[in-house]
Structure formats: C-alpha cells, structure tokens
C-alpha cells in the first residue's frame, strides 16, 4: 500500500526471504458482504488487499461473502464492483461468490462429523447462551457425545429441510474450557428458511462465517487472509478449521490470517445497519447522498480516487485501532484538487451592482487563468458589463471594523478587472438593499492606481447578462459529534447535523460553466471546490471549502 512500510509487508517479506513464496505467488482476497454499499471503512481493507497483491506482482480475488442471505442483493454486487474499479483496482478473472462453495463446505462439514470434530446440537438459543459458561466455569454441551453416525444423519436431514429453524445446529468439538469463547464448541451451521439471492431456496442450512471463510480462502489458494482487528480473536478458530479440513483439500497453499486496525473516522458512523436506516427512512437522498461515508456518496460529493488513496496511505497500517481525522480526508482532496481543478467564478448569494460610468451596451472581456498553479491549463475570457453580481456578504451599508470589501465611501477591486467605488444603494420597502450603484476606475483598469492609493480588498463577480443560474448545495458533516463511537447506536439519530446540507437557489455562475459535465470538479474562487451533481439537474455540490482545518 503506497510506498510506506507496514507490518503486513514485513511479515510477507520475511516469508519471501525464507523461501516460502516468491513475490508473484502472494495471493490476497477482498470479501465484502453484498448487503450494502462500500463505505470509507471498507476502503481501507480494499486498498490493503488489492494494494498488497499489486505491490508484489501477485493476485487479489474479489469474493462476495454471501453465505448469510439476509439483505443480500445483486444491486450491491454491482455497486461494489464499480467502487473497486473507480479506485483503480481490478480482480481480472478472479471473481467469486462464497455461495459457490456451499456444496464443498457441506462436504467438508460432513468430514468433520465423521472425524469426530463436529456434532449436531439441539440446544435452543436461550439454552446455548445459558450453557456458555464464563471465565471461571466451562461451557456445557449435553449433545457433545452424540454418536457420529447419528450427527451425520441429522445433518443430512437438516439439509433436506426436515426440521424447523432453531431445532438443530452443527457445532465444532473443540474446547469447552477455552478462555477464548469462540473456541467453546462454536456453531458451524444453522437452519434458515430464506431465499438466497443466487441459490434461491435450494439450501436451507447455511455455514457460519467462521467456517465458510477459511474454507473459501483455502479453496482459492489465498496465501494471506488480511482482515480487520475484530477478527484477531477468531484467528484460532480460523486456524483450527484450516488444520482439520487440510486432509481433504487439493490446494497446497495454506492461508494465513493477519489482522490490521480498522478505520475509524471522526464525525462518521460506519454501521451498515444505521446507514441503511438513513436511506430507508428518507433522512438522506439514497446510498450515494453526498453526506454519506459510502464510496458512491464520496464520488458524488466530488472526492477523487487519488485523494482517498492518499488518505488511506497517510493513515497507514497499524495493529491498534485509532481515530482518523475527517480534516485529514478533506485536506487530501483539497490538495489534490488545488493542483488540477480549473477555476471558475460563482456568486452564491447575488447582489446586483450597476457600474454607472460603464456604457450600457458595451461588453469587455478579461482573461483569467484556468488554474494559476498550472500554466498549461490556459486562460478563458470572462465578460464584463455595466451590470454585475457580487456576493451579498461583500457589501455592507454599515460595515464592521476592518471590512475591506465594498462599502460607502470605499473602493474595492473586482477580481481581474476594475476598481469600483460606491455611489448609492437601492432598497425595497423593508429597507433591504436590492442593488448598489458604483463607478469604475476605467483608466487604471487591472493595474495599480497611479496616485498610489491602496486598495485592500478584492472580490469576485459575474456579469448579469453573461452568467447562468444554478443551484448550489453546501454539504457539511452528517453528524455533529466528533467521536460517534462513544454514542450508543440507538442515539445516533439524535446527533445528526441539521446544517449538513444547505441549498442555495438562484446562484449566478460564469457562462463558461454552461456546458460543464456532471462529475467535473472546479474551484469556485473564494468559495471552495465544487462538482456538478450527477443526479440533480443544474446543481453543484460543494466538495470542501478552501480553508484547510487539518493541522499536520
């Protein structure tokens, strides 16, 4: 991942040095569950899995972890593929479904029963919890000594659909006294009468993740099963499954699980369940709402794949969970767009200004750079006319101290064009300013005044007849609390930021944006970075402001 060293790469390097693998034999996998859209938290695992394989010239499989049919859907499969390609990775011909291995997993479970390492149990869910024991008392399993033949017969009949949900389960026979409760005869299979998005109703028993995942890795020849830190306590069970199915596997490669710290982000919730709640209850505008932490949401917001890759690289690969700053993510996209986004002018809350000494019919053109940081981006012509729009906030009848914009008895420079001086104001019946009259220093033009007077303020503007109307949405944090991990999940909804999306209508944009394509990013000078929305007509989303809140 990136060019930085990390402990995963150190472990792989040691195995390569010992002759266990050649670099091109390194084989990873990314196994998302297709029950929702990928979010920024998944992105770290995605980049580690694909990036590690890419670094060594190896391979990375994309496998849909669809062994739990609840909420799984083909829609999510397609979205996951799109997100991975958007970030610049590809699985080539190595695309699989966990459900592809249902028959093989069932066959291996039968071998575990025959070898005395698994048995059919009929404890209810309540009894199972009651008999689990604690740190000073071992678990109890009344069916642990059930004859192998009887367990095998019951397991076959479970598959045949003879029993209701919850009547039986298949459990591993490991260690009822283990301090790791995952090893206290964990459940391997359960009965579920539910339609699978690919298998339909052909299966009514489904393997648990702790059984299915190591078997899937083994079948696919994965060398390194890289996963987040919450699976560290499951690693002994992963290794137990690998060891006990090994006699029945044709693949010589034995996978190794390595855990890394998951990504936590300030002002963000990663729970798929709660994100789905936001979507299903109309609190957000779908999974790709620009406020969502989903990759499709970040893409619609205007984030670039380069900025996200940079962010994950800066966060790094660690063994201990930590909290990454949202400001760092914003810094990465701001830094990326500063270098390559073309500049345009947009007046968000327009106030009409009439230049009294500029001819009515005259149109003058000024050349403005498309990107001051990139000469190759060229320049564009911007029309100047008698009537222009400026921001309401750039004018004050009763200005506060140190107000260096347009005000009575004051002058201000219009960006790239003339210096203007206040003359008078027009107001409505309520006293609100509706228009401002000024005069322009025509002789000085874009230069410095010959009399040496200092013009402290510069503001942006657009021509009234040579501009277009559009809507602009200022997006901000979806939540108003920095560490959402400290908030109980049933209280998340109470911490939504009421100002996470503020829409401005009737904004005025320079005419050069009239043919802007959806998804193209710009810097609106003095306002921030924006992108034309991919779904809402004639609407621009603010990606991030110009001010950088990240402290290096």
Provide a short characterization of the protein structure:
The chain is 25% helix and 24% strand.
Index terms:
single chain; 552 residues; alpha/beta; 7-stranded mixed sheet; 12 helices; 24% strand; elongated
Topology:
Blueprint: H1 7-17, E1 27-30, H2 40-56, E2 59-64, H3 74-86, E3 95-97, H4 102-114, E4 118-121, H5 125-130, H6 148-159, E5 169-172, E6 187-191, E7 205-207, H7 209-220, E8 224-228, H8 235-245, E9 256-260, E10 263-265, H9 272-280, H10 295-301, H11 305-315, E11 322-324, H12 326-340, E12 342-344, E13 346-347, E14 350-355, E15 364-369, E16 379-384, E17 387-391, E18 411-414, E19 419-427, E20 433-440, E21 458-459, E22 462-463, E23 467-475, E24 501-510, E25 521-524, E26 528-532, E27 539-544
Helix pairs in contact: 7-8, 11-12
Counted beta strands: 27
Low-pLDDT ranges: none
Strand content: 15-25%
Shape: elongated
What topology, given as strand order, has the largest sheet? Answer: 12-25-26-27-23-24-13
Mean pLDDT: 95
Helical run tally: 12
Class inferred from helices and paired strands: alpha/beta
Q: Provide the gyration radius in Å.
A: 31 Å
CA distance, first residue to last residue: 21 Å
- Helical proportion, percent range: 10-25%
Q: What composes the largest sheet?
A: 7 strands, mixed
